[in-house]
Amino acid sequence: NKGNYEHYMQKEIHEQPESLTTTMRGRLIRGGSCKSKSVLLGGLKDHLKTIRRSRRIIFIGCGTSYNAALAARPILEELSGIPVTMEIASDLLDRQGPIYREDTVVFVSQSGETADTLQALDYALENGALCVGITNTVGSAIARKTHCGIHINAGCEIGVASTKAYTSQIVVMAMLALAIGDDTISSQARREAIIDGLFDLPSKVKEVLKLNKEMKDLAQLLIAEQSLLVFGRGYNYATALEGALKVKEVALMHSEGILAGEMKHGPLALVDETLPIVVVATRDACFSKQQSVIQQLHARKGRLIVMCTKGDAASVSVGGSCRIIEVPQVEDCLQPVINIVPLQLLAYHLTVLRGYNVDQPRNLAKSVTTQ
Length: 371
Ligand code: F6R
Fold this sequence. Notes:
With about 375 residues, the protein is α/β, with parallel strands linked by helices. The chain has helices spanning about 10-15, 15-25, 50-55, 65-80, 90-95, 115-125, 140-145, 165-180, 185-210, 210-220, 235-250, 285-300, 315, 335-355, and strands at about 30, 35-40, 55-60, 85-90, 105-110, 130-135, 150, 225-230, 255-260, 275-280, 305-310, 325.
């Protein structure tokens, strides 16, 4: 049921304030007077000790689910102190990469049925690792075969392009980081700030959704382009990859997410006055580095669209020439949840304006059950 919306993708983008609320329901605790703030993940409680003792945490997924894990990786490393590595399921299988008994392997999948992820799960089980599932489908193969897990609870996602599952997956993995991390005095302020940030997230997403009209205007401007680059780094490297994936899969426009730190190692050669480039430059520890990336792209006459924190337009707009997308600020590790929303809207409007099928992009299936 699409309700008042024309397409499922549109509905699922706009229902993110609600899907995020459902994902967090009953899991965040802002205790009474003497109890501090904490996270309760029922499906993990018997395994937390083992996870904390593991030598390495490996995230495995495909497509958008991989990108969600990439967005959560920095906060998991920060709070757990355990090395976190990333694997695209098919690539791990191609290499038959080493997995050990001392590893915790986290499988991220909206459908819970993706063939590559499922096969990687069989492989990790054979190698004796502790396997954790993060899926949006109760009773799915990945939910059943893993030792323990967390349901995403984002509600059924129908549009082939994943939107609300992505933001809920990031929130689930941020809660996972809080659950694994030790409640030490030194990390207490940071943990509480993240928990407060999670509570506020649905209202901030509501706020960023107000950019709908602006994103439609931007889509109109980009309608006939051949290509779009998206630059990000740090927490928002994932935003660049995921924004580009949305544009290419539904709007059928070539788009590439680029790690801004790699700019000088090749991508800079593409920059000219015609190619549109989105730069994600919201406030976090990487902000000044992103400012210098913007300056360098500007010096090559790049056609820039800069995403920045509200009030920062003047600090990112070199020569007053770039288009600006201003988004509300949240705790740095949660910023990817906010920043992807304008790019989801852009991909949606680009698709409709270009006359393509939004909910069933050419050649794609919602659940990839073959290899
Ligand atoms: C992109 C998209 C795909 C899926 C990928 C994994 O919008 O939907 O990239 O994310 O096929 O699917 P799941 O999460 O079901 O394992």
